[in-house]
Amino acid sequence: MVTTAPAHTPESSADFVPFCDEEIRALEYRRRIPGGDWSEENIYLKKSTRPGWWKNANNPPLKGIMDIFSLWHVRTGVIRKGIQTGGTQACYNLLAREADYSNGNDNALVVMADEKSVKKHGVNRLRPLFECSPNLAAIMSPNPDDTTAYTMRLLSGFRIDVGWATSEVSVASESYRVIIIDEISKFSNVQNIDEIKGRATTHEDTKKLLFLSSPDMSGTDPLQAEEASCDVTFDFWPVCPDCGEAQPMLWDNFTWPKQNSLLPGGKEDHPHPGEVRRLHLARYACRHCGVLWDNHAKNRAVTLAMARPPYSGWIPRQEVARFSSFAVIYPGWLSPFVSLSECVAKWIEAQNELKETGRDDKVKKWTNTVAGEYYAREAIGAVTTEHLLRYKSDLPRNLVPPDTCFLGLLADTQQSSFYYEVWAYGFAPAYKMHMVRHGIVEKFIDLEGLILSEEFKDHNGLIHRIGPGLLDSGGTRRGYQKHSRTVEVYEWCSQHRQIIPIKGLSGRTGEMISYKEITTYPGTNKPIPGGLKRANLRVDLFKDELERRLGIEPDDPGALSYHDGIDSDFAKHYTAETKDESGTWIHNRKHRNDYWDCNNYAVALLEMMRLRIPRIDTQEPPGRKIRNSGVQ
Ligand SMILES: [Zn+2]
């Protein structure tokens, strides 16, 4: 007889022990799909410019970013973005994806720039994303205590902590597998960033770090450092709807009416920014066929990029196999939410501000938030126009500041005029320097008027007159001016002995200031009546000193100050000289540098007078109405 094992059949359904939902989720084989596709399946947005289920077609560049970040070999992603690009939302999608796939053995940390951002966004930004997306809502803990302003604990045990750079959660030693640093460019302390990144070291092979921000200043932006350390950098290449050629979208190819007036000889005369916006005047010229894209064509070009390999639009600058870190650059104009005309209008506004006030705030903002580029101030001199204007005081022109020891005149000799500055020097030991006046005069007699008859008053009505001064004996420094004014300068100085003729010497070795007896007029045997002392100045050393003093914050001791009438035309003189690699100051010929020269003489005059300036505690006797220190 053959016995057969009884068939393994359940007696009744009561023998089953059903799995609970969590067990099913844990046992379920889950194929991990890329971030872009995952978002379309799982993300539902209630509060958005495009509410509803997430559609990659609404913002094509984000799909590629999310897909690249979710590649198995990628550990670090860096997103440099303009505003209105949706980059932050993509990061939250990626965070939600990590949370969704997590088995609860790890945690995530989101770090924002400061406490304020956390209070404003924090979990408040994540919560609706989870609540509105059905699949994510299913993994939220029903216990309200598990979702606070700073923490979100999911059913799986996966926890999302939100903190800021110096918050407890960021500096604690707990480890996180997923770390997102938002607005990393605003982080002032790079050490904090390293500490935060250090939280992930226990997950070396599985960690996911994501840094995103609009960029800031070139050279100091922590985003730039993260970007530089990436294995590969991607640019988005839209595809021209007309010729089908892919290309990175560069600012140089933007165009609008009257823009050609920027060409040499043309007037810089842009349309009104409001007109650009209203009439949608901006276009983008295809780099291959020259066809002008309007906004619609631009958006189409961005979408078309998804239809050809690598089907994301993101083209690596170099081919790197199995890269573990990557950076993407997402300028604002690629975003479907940003119009070409908005980019151009903002650019014109920024240029207008620069032209009218010398301030580059808007230019910087445009560069950072529209172009998505780091901002580097044009390296044209020791100082920028904007920087110099920070030293503008609210003292009106000609008003002498309190506690002034003497006034000095500094003049730069041109072929047909003199640029001059009048500086007020304070007592020792502070030696405050304030420029009370500047200008151009045509003739020696005008200089004479300044020193002989001009009276300057302080707040108390006390009258000051110009005391010592320095007058450039030059006009010959460039060697090509045949009729040097040196003779005239010597002649005039011999009659006005408080003004010393000066000559600039190159190089940094030798005395800062040396004096030379001049007995005859140059090129002749004609004696100068009474002889003359000329001061030779190592100008580069004084320029270094002026540069140093212009590095002092305006409200700190030792800072220079200027009367309230200085403007960008004045300040431009200070941007005209730059140091070469050997440290020699060179005139860049873009702007005149005469006031910069005068200011250098002002620094030199202080050096010459320093030992004769009394201390503040040795005040002049009361009753003296005119202070005229003179010079020997
Ligand atoms: Zn084309």
Task: Describe the overall structure.
The chain is an alpha/beta fold and 632 residues long. Among the domains are: 34-235, P-loop containing nucleotide triphosphate hydrolases (Rossmann fold); 387-477 and 484-617, Nucleotidyltransferase, domain 5. It is 29% helix and 21% strand. It is built from 20 helices and 27 strands. The strands form six sheets. It has a nine-stranded mixed β-sheet, with helices on both faces. Strands 22-23-21-20-15-16-17-24 form an eight-stranded mixed β-sheet. β1 (44-45) and β2 (52-53) form a beta hairpin. It is elongated, with a radius of gyration of 35 Å. The termini are far apart. The model is unreliable at 261-267, 476-483 and 618-632 (pLDDT under 50). It binds zinc ion. Zinc ion is lined by residues 240, 242-243, 245, 286, 288-289, 291.
